[in-house]
Design goal:
The complex is a heterodimer of chains A (about 425) and B (about 475).
Chain A (H helix, E strand, L loop, with lengths): L8 H12 L4 E4 L2 E4 L4 H14 L3 E4 L15 E4 L6 E5 L4 E5 L4 H9 L3 E2 L12 H6 L7 H4 L2 H4 E7 L5 E5 L11 H5 L8 E8 L1 E2 L4 E8 L2 H13 L6 E7 L2 E9 L2 H14 L5 E4 L6 H4 L7 E6 L5 H14 L2 E8 L3 E8 L7 H13 L5 E6 L18 H11 L15
Parallel strand pairs in A: 2-4, 3-4
Antiparallel strand pairs in A: 1-2, 5-6, 6-10, 7-11, 8-9, 8-10, 12-14, 12-15, 13-14, 13-17, 16-18, 16-19, 17-18
Helix pairs in contact in A: 1-2, 8-11
Chain B lengths: L3 H11 L4 E2 L2 H4 L16 E3 L4 H14 L3 E4 L16 E4 L6 E5 L4 E4 L5 H8 L4 E2 L12 H7 L6 H4 L6 E7 L5 E5 L10 H5 L8 E8 L1 E2 L3 E9 L2 H13 L6 E6 H11 L8 E9 L1 H17 L4 E4 L3 H12 L1 H5 L5 E4 L2 E2 L5 H14 L3 E7 L4 E8 L6 H18 L15 H7 L2 H14 L28 H4 L7
Parallel strand pairs in B: 2-4, 3-4
Antiparallel strand pairs in B: 1-2, 5-6, 6-10, 7-11, 8-9, 8-10, 12-14, 12-15, 13-14, 13-18, 16-19, 17-19, 18-19
The chains are: A alpha+beta (about 425), B alpha+beta (about 475).
The structure holds flavin-adenine dinucleotide (FAD).
The site of flavin-adenine dinucleotide has 37 residues of chain B, from strand 3, helix 5, strand 10 and helix 12.
């Protein structure tokens, strides 16, 4: 326990075990890991930690624990035991899920009635609902279905002082009260612990086909991409991939079976003269693979959609000049994930320079680059968050109101929140 | 009336042409679309620039004068109702479309821009602005943002929040802040997401970046006449269960049909429950789906099915639907518009309860719903000249909202809580929920100056919660950004 804690570790263990049960309270390295079994227990753990000055990081499976600024809390609050799909009102196309439920486990439950939460986050087998929300992750489906802001319709959360609060509800259309769930989404566990989530659902995509078009440069794909998005094809997902110097554009079409051939013809016309190949749906997992490259720095870029291809080309070119390997998976929405690995060793600053240049490039149009994963050698050399917002004082004030003792994930978020 | 000194300051901020203090003129601003609540403001200002808005808000902050922003005043929950003796800040003169970026599918507008003008501006390029409140030819984007307004087409396209990428906001301190970005997922809390729907209580939006959507290749609209609203409701459920997401699914009951007919002669079939289904998308897909919709409607006993054969026919169908509220004025001297939401499947049960409840007090209720998302607009008809009837009607309308909550729904789907439903919000949310929402309010507006005494059931003070706050040392040193 650090100097500010008003309690010894042994005392804390006893108190926590009394709340969550001894089997779910253990010591791991410098921290205590506790896994409460209900929203009420989560709230009790928080109240206790908050009173005793113990810092807390909520965790699902820990798949994105490395995102944001590093935090070494006294307490890891695991959501693993609150993991049920509480309700699937399939006729109303809504569901209520506990935050510790793995994304894929939730989806397979919903699939029994042919429905899904229309979002494809990273590592669905492991990533929990709460973690996906806290990190505001999203994948290629966002083009058609929107992000979590559009899919989450209600939430239960526990605040640092043990308050349990709800916002939204179980109906899709609802403007009663402030949408606290929108504030919690993407807040990286700094305002409260998400314990339960209500989603709106969509039918599982029945008849989907994926096509790929290859090119040497993004620039060759920019025109057809713009045309594709303007056409009446309404693809459910589109991503630009670059790896080993080559580019590819993946397009998923999803419509009634009778209409698929017509759409495919239109697609071929748009890519007039280029080879349009039907491929396996696994290309949509390309984003995950970026995180597997050993020693790579992985960033999330927010770009204007029309800047995608040129930005990817630019990044590729700089990378060659700096002996950096770069792989990119970018959604047509303008969200880009890029992995950068320096062939001549992680301690060189070339990646830092590249990220800074990219930030400069995107700044004028409001874009940003956030570092998701980076080797220790680069940590501290560059700001993880690229937040230049004049709303930062307001964000700090919100944090202060929600968590005055800085109990929750202190320092993890933008501006040291 | 405000003290002379304060009036002088306001005049200096917006110029004499931007200030209203004469009582006869102030009366124009004493209510919004919910006309049974009226309060005379101390002054009305009509700023034309962001700097003027800031200057006015700073004056209010300095003297602790409550202020209420106002768009077109079409709100139906008393959101733009002035604070007694406070300042009304009308954004009507800030009505320029500042930027149109078709390649990136967004527009940047000032808050006083009329909703329909956004679509008009981008229509030639094949785009439209999706949220379409029935009031869209007059209501403003600022008001839409504050209410998170919807419309008939939000079933498929989402609400104002779905289409709001970024906001420029004058905070209740007078400071300017920017939320979100034209690019997705700007780092930091999603303050744009929180501000949309906050009903003018968190500050004033002075610039809004809106997403625009590609206009679909084909739109088809079908009318199906059913013996009861419940049969129409079952059809809605079946359409959705078949995996379709129509652009709109609307139901009107006999009274609403009668009213709409009287007002705009939409040539609706006479029936117990009229269903309007609109499908849009690529031509061949729409045609296939329309056949499926027809089959479902027939299965559920539709007596008559019509598909609009021309754009003019389609427009007429919508004209009748969009005129429904006002049209009710033709069959009743007075009426109350309510805005509850229920899970779709609860529709038959809730309709039966409403019928029973209205029968018990001898009042008529006309029903218009955005059925696809369970958003009911019960219109409680009454006659103010009959003593005591207004109270009975109001009471009935609030009990209908409670009924919606009891059935797992909400007290408002698009009109907002405002002044009208403050108590109902307390029925829907528990005290800890409201306290937590209040934390947000206090972070934005510690003095509760921006649209005070709205939304929440009772006035609250922003006293800090107990517990010492010590700034992080790095924060005090100003280096918090880099660790
Ligand atoms: C006939 C009729 C039909 C309607 N149909 C629909 C419908 O289908 N769907 C729907 O959602 N609504 C509907 N409404 C309600 C109303 O039109 C909407 O709520 C609309 O968004 C209000 O816009 P306004 O410009 O009139 O705002 P106002 O009524 O002037 O203000 C509404 C609220 O917004 C705040 N506000 C205004 N401007 C700003 C700003 N710049 N920054 C911060 N806060 C601001 C005000 O303080 C107030 O709280 C209807 C109303 C009528 C009269």
């Amino acid at each position: 326990m650090n100097a500010t804690a008003a309690i010894t570790r042994e005392e804390a263990m006893v108190r926590l075990a009394a709340i969550a049960g001894p089997a779910d309270t253990r010591i791991d390295g410098d921290a205590i890991c506790v896994a409460p079994g209900s929203t009420e227990q989560i709230a009790e753990v928080l109240r206790f930690a908050n009173e005793c000055g113990l810092s807390v990081v909520p965790t699902g499976s820990g798949s994105k624990l490395g995102w944001g600024n590093p935090v070494a809390p006294e307490l890891f609050l695991g959501l693993g035991r609150v993991n049920a799909v509480r309700e699937h009102a399939w006729q109303d196309m809504t569901c209520t899920v506990e935050a510790g439920c793995a994304w894929a486990a939730m989806q397979s439950e919903l699939a029994r009635h042919g429905q899904m939460v229309a979002l494809d986050p990273l590592w669905p087998e492991r990533a929990t609902v709460g973690g996906v929300l806290a990190a505001n992750d999203s994948g290629a489906l966002r083009l058609r279905y929107g992000g979590l802001r559009d899919l989450v319709i209600g939430m239960t959360m526990a605040l640092a002082d043990g308050t349990i609060a709800k916002s939204g509800g179980k109906v899709v259309k609802n403007v009663a009260g402030y949408d606290l769930h929108k504030l919690m989404t993407g807040s990286f566990g700094t305002l409260g612990v998400i314990t339960e989530v209500n989603f709106r659902l969509h039918p599982v995509e029945q008849c989907a086909r994926t096509f790929t078009v290859g090119a040497q440069y993004g620039a060759q794909l920019a025109g057809p991409l713009a045309e594709l998005l303007h056409a009446q094809i309404a693809p459910s997902a589109v991503q630009l991939r670059t790896a080993a110097g080559q580019c590819a554009l993946d397009v998923r079409l999803c419509t009634r079976p009778e209409c698929l051939d017509g759409l495919t013809d239109q697609l071929r016309k748009i890519f007039n003269g280029m080879a349009v190949q039907e491929v396996d749906g696994r290309v949509w997992q390309a984003r995950e693979q970026l995180f597997c490259e050993a020693g790579a720095t992985v960033v999330k870029g927010s770009l204007l959609p029309a800047e995608l291809c040129a930005t990817a080309d630019d990044l590729k070119e700089t990378a060659v000049a700096k002996s950096v390997d770069v792989s990119i998976v970018a959604q047509a929405t303008g969200l880009m994930t890029a992995a950068l690995a320096d062939r001549r060793g992680a301690e060189r600053d070339s990646i830092v320079t590249m990220i800074e240049q990219l930030r400069e490039r995107l700044r004028p149009s409001g874009g940003s680059v956030v570092i998701l994963q980076t080797p220790d050698a680069l940590r501290g050399k560059i700001d993880v968050w690229d937040c230049r917002s004049d709303a930062l004082p307001l964000m700090r004030e919100i944090k202060r109101r929600f968590d005055p003792n800085r109990t929750l994930s202190p320092g993890r978020f933008v501006g040291g929140i | 009336m405000l003290p002379h000194g304060q009036i002088d300051e306001l005049r200096a901020a917006v110029g004499a042409g931007g200030l209203i203090t004469a009582e006869s003129q102030l009366q124009t601003y004493e209510c919004d679309g919910l006309t049974n609540f009226r309060v005379l403001p101390g002054a009305v200002v009509l700023p034309q620039t962001i700097e003027q808005v800031q200057a006015v808000v700073r004056i209010c902050a300095r003297h602790k004068i409550p202020f209420v922003s106002r768009g077109a005043g079409t709100g139906l929950s008393g959101g733009a109702l002035p604070a007694a003796g406070g300042v009304v800040i009308s954004l009507a003169r800030m009505n320029r479309i500042l930027d149109v970026d078709i390649a990136n599918r967004y527009v940047i507008v000032e808050p006083g821009v009329i909703n329909a003008h956004v679509t008009q501006r981008v229509a030639a390029d094949g785009y439209f602005y999706a949220p379409d409140p029935s009031s869209q030819s007059v209501c403003t984007i600022g008001g839409n943002v504050a209410e998170n307004s919807g419309g008939a087409h939000c079933l498929k396209y989402g609400f104002t929040v779905t289409h709001t990428l970024a906001l420029e906001v004058v905070l209740p301190s007078g400071e300017l802040a920017h939320f979100g970005s034209p690019t997705l997922d700007a780092p930091g809390y999603d303050l744009a997401g929180v501000f949309v729907g906050s009903e003018g209580t968190l500050g004033i939006a002075t610039k809004v970046t809106l997403r625009i959507v590609r206009r679909p290749e084909m739109v088809q609209t079908l009318l199906a006449a059913f013996p009861t609203p419940s049969a129409a409701g079952q059809t809605v459920s079946d359409i959705i269960a078949a995996g379709m997401l129509p652009a709109a699914l609307e139901i009107m009951d006999t009274l609403a049909i009668e009213a709409a007919e009287a007002a705009v002669h939409a040539h609706y079939p006479k029936c117990g429950g009229l269903l309007l289904v609109e499908l849009d998308g690529a031509c061949d897909e729409v045609e296939i789906l329309m056949r499926e919709v027809r089959a479902i409607a027939e299965k559920n006993g539709a007596a008559e099915i019509r598909v609009a054969q021309s754009e003019a026919e389609r427009a007429l169908i919508w004209k009748g639907r969009k005129a429904a509220f006002a049209a009710v004025g033709r069959i009743s001297p007075n009426y109350i518009v309510q805005d509850g939401v229920i899970p779709r499947t609860a529709l038959p049960r809730v309709l039966a309860d409403i019928e029973r409840m209205s029968g018990a007090v001898n009042l008529r209720v006309a029903n218009v719903f955005h059925a696809g998302d369970g958003n009911l607009h019960p219109l409680v008809l009454y006659d103010r000249s009959i003593e005591g009837q207004e109270e009975i009607a109001l009471d009935l309308s609030y009990r209908i909202l409670n009924l919606c909550v009891d059935n797992g729904g909400s007290i408002t789907g698009e009109h907002g809580v405002g002044k009208e439903k403050q108590q109902a919000l307390g029925y829907m949310f528990a005290e800890p929920d409201l306290e937590t929402m209040q934390l947000v309010r206090c972070a934005f507006d510690p003095e509760s100056l921006s649209n005070p005494d709205k939304v929440f059931p009772r006035p609250r003070l922003c006293a800090d919660k107990p517990g010492p706050y010590t700034p992080h040392p790095l924060e005090t040193a100003g280096v918090a950004e880099i660790f």
